[in-house]
Design goal:
single chain, 321 residues, alpha/beta, Rossmann fold, eight-stranded mixed β-sheet, 8 strands, 17% strand
């Protein structure tokens, strides 16, 4: 299942960026310039603004098919799971949303969850994990781990399915990788059929591409990563600890994974490095690189996003068998 195509330097050339992708990137920079910073106006204010559709992100579209479940968390807290499922699921997709561990929510990407449910036949279960800075590490990862344990124990009864896949975007990619490792190390579970890891952050001590990206306001800048990490890890001194930065974990005996990233993403190195280590540890993995793709590019309608999401659906169908 490992992607054997050459690692082509042409993918990173400006000549490989399509005109529509270049136009989208320019439009994103224009929209983001002058936008308020969440660490200045406050996380709660920025969350509310995003729900109103202010800024470059449209207001969330809620699915009439969604329902919620409430489970107990590791700390005795309640965790809400948002479920979008076909009539007879063949598997369960555990989805962890992005937003820098600070923003976002389980109910803010229903169209994407509907697509995965419809195209792969899985019950999609999105976790409303606790957010920083109100709930710093390890609250969010603990909630994701608790959700995985609950699905492992109750998935057959609740959905009539046992096969588990997992995935997420950005901070959600980080949380998905961390959850896979926690389930292996703390619970002896290595049964995920596949991991859909989309432009995740795997080195929270900051990979070279994070440090070097600078202040071009193409969705995610160096300062954005620094502020997200400071909110998520306010008291952590070793940000390369494996439970915090999956890139530094021991990675043997993990599930097949699809790593997706665009070449104009501050987290480019995170995906390149994590894919290499995943394969070097003896695991099957595919690497999908999209010329000119910015951070979050799959969330905006474009031919590049269509190609990426189609490959994700194909991957999930293949690992489910």
């Amino acid at each position: 299942m490992t992607d054997t195509r050459p690692f082509d330097p042409a993918l990173f050339s400006g000549a490989s960026i399509s005109p529509d992708t270049a136009e989208l990137n320019a439009r994103m920079i224009e929209l983001l310039n002058g936008q308020p910073e969440w660490w200045i106006v406050g996380a709660a204010t920025m969350r509310a603004a995003r729900r109103r559709g202010e800024g470059p992100f449209p207001a969330p579209v809620m699915s009439s098919r969604a329902r919620t479940l409430t489970i107990a968390g590791k700390d005795g807290n309640e965790i809400v799971l948002r479920v979008i499922a076909p009539p007879q699921p063949r598997g369960i997709y555990l989805h962890l949303h992005g937003g820098g561990w600070v923003l976002g929510g389980a109910d803010m990407q229903d169209p994407m969850l509907e697509r995965i449910a419809d195209n792969t036949g899985q019950a999609v279960v999105a976790v409303e994990y606790r957010l920083a800075p109100e709930h710093p590490y390890p609250a969010g990862p603990d909630d994701c781990e608790a959700a995985a344990i609950w699905l492992l124990r109750h998935g057959q009864k609740e959905f009539g399915a046992e096969m588990l896949t997992i995935g997420g975007e950005s901070a959600g990619g980080h949380l998905a990788a961390a959850t896979i490792l926690r389930m292996r190390d703390s619970h002896g579970y290595t049964g995920f059929r596949g991991a859909n890891l989309v432009y995740g952050a795997y080195d929270l001590a900051m990979s070279p591409s994070q440090r070097q990206f600078g202040d071009t306001r193409l969705v995610l800048r160096t300062i954005d990563m620094q502020q997200f990490y400071n909110a998520f890890l306010p008291t952590v001194t070793d940000r390369r600890a494996p439970d915090i930065s999956p890139l530094y974990a021991e990675l043997t005996n993990l599930c097949p994974a699809l790593f997706t990233v665009g070449t104009k993403d501050a987290l480019l190195d995170d995906t390149l490095f994590m894919h290499a280590r995943w394969v070097a540890a003896g695991n099957a993995a595919e690497l999908a690189i999209y010329p000119g793709g910015s951070h979050g590019f799959t969330l905006f309608p474009s031919p590049l996003a269509q190609a990426a999401t189609a490959r994700m659906d194909q991957f999930l169908n293949r690992v489910l068998g």
